[in-house]
Design brief:
single chain, alpha/beta, Rossmann fold, DNA polymerase, domain 1, 2 domains
């Protein structure tokens, strides 16, 4: 059954593992660089550095947030280093571009990655011109999703009306505050169908197909 999104005029999209498939393993390149950074910063053996990295991600929403809180890290060097990876694993999708282009209203990127990373990925995927704004970790004062304060900030900055907003994410936990605020939530990715969360309204492993089949503003009833 197609989704009824005729009420939506603001479209929020996560970036990594949402606008390209998890199966590309692109984020794996970044995670290796994160482990390199944590290993060098802490002096821990690599396996312990990786465990700390993952622990910070689970506890604080991003590895960066854990490093800032527990090690006083200045974020720019970390962000620049870990996002400096090859784009070869990312393949532009004309189908996704066409599907996003047909969405009426505003389209905004909402990512825990950096501004520079978002710009590079969007440009490589041939999607940059389809989004009016990029709300990245710098814009959020380095407080990542799913923090409610970050949702409040993006909502105020861009005058977002949650009941008229759809949010697309590959992370179930990042959809929880969105649903509580009244946004329509869509979990994206290979494992989306397995979700049973009450905070997930729709699930898809085919983002272009989902968007193309959805009922939008102006569509026939």
């Amino acid at each position: 059954m197609s989704a009824d999104l005729a009420h939506v005029d603001t479209w929020l999209f996560d970036l990594d593992n949402t606008l390209y498939p998890l199966e590309s393993q692109f984020m794996g390149l970044i995670e290796v660089k994160m482990t390199d950074f944590v290993e060098r910063l802490t002096g821990l053996p690599r396996e312990e550095a990786r465990a700390l990295q993952h622990g910070y991600f689970k506890e604080h929403g991003t590895t960066l947030a854990g490093l800032m809180i527990n090690h006083g890290l200045e974020p720019k060097a970390f962000l620049d280093e870990v996002h400096d990876v090859s784009m070869d694993r990312l393949i532009p999708s004309p189908e996704l571009r066409e599907a996003i282009a047909r969405l009426p209203g505003r389209r905004i990127i909402f990512t825990n990655g950096s501004v520079g990373h978002a710009e590079r990925v969007l440009k490589h995927l041939n999607l940059r011109d389809l989004f009016s704004e990029v709300f990245a970790i710098e814009t959020a004062d380095y407080i990542p999703k799913p923090s409610l304060s970050t949702f409040d900030k993006i909502s105020k900055l861009h005058a977002i009306d949650p009941p008229m907003t759809a949010f697309f994410e590959d992370s179930e936990k990042n959809l929880v505050p969105a649903a509580r605020l009244g946004m329509t939530t869509i979990l994206v990715g290979a494992h989306a169908k397995d979700s049973t969360s009450e905070h997930v309204h729709f699930r898809t492993n085919d983002l272009p197909g989902f968007l193309n089949s959805a009922r939008l503003q102006g569509s026939p009833p």
